[in-house]
């Protein structure tokens, strides 16, 4: 039995939903409301003591952290692959994924934004400026890497869908939700839009989830 603890608007949960869908894997969604602080309840902490989503439970074992879950799925369910066979290409797409997962998302996730408002008294406009700054920093690096390497096509790595694309789509969706200016990153955004339009990806988009509001 495979269950995914998820919140519809969580970009990290969205990454995992995309990977599961692309690989054609079935899962039981278990919805965790972040606004209601359900991720901090004793019941959920008994599943994932980190108190974060997503968490994947497979055969009684919990895997936390979205990038670790993506690695696990690739190792246990390698078809269709989300990592290329060539070690240098694998490192390349992992590096792109980590621009999203390490350079943008940790600075802009919900708990950071709440802390900025609660501890330092940032206004909504100041919070959004913070968010947009780190999106711009990260997407500028992402776009520059794509252009410098010249390996992109339909996807970040030519015609192969990879974890770079899986991580990119949710981050672009969040940037749009915060009204970030994405015009300076045309290659990045075009790739994200093509991936988001894939039927498997459309089926797991935030607005399709049962807990969406």
From TrEMBL:
Residues 1-81 form the GST N-terminal domain. GO terms for cellular component: cytoplasm. Belongs to the GST superfamily. Zeta family. InterPro entries: Glutathione-S-Trfase_C-like, Glutathione-S-Trfase_C_sf, Glutathione_S-Trfase, Glutathione_S-Trfase_N, GST_C, GST_Zeta, GST_Zeta_C, GST_Zeta_N. One of its GO terms (molecular function) is maleylpyruvate isomerase activity. Pfam families: GST_C_3, GST_N_2. Residues 86-213 form the GST C-terminal domain. GO terms for biological process: glutathione metabolic process; L-phenylalanine catabolic process. This is Maleylacetoacetate isomerase/maleylpyruvate isomerase. It comes from the Bacteria. It is an enzyme of class 5 (isomerase).
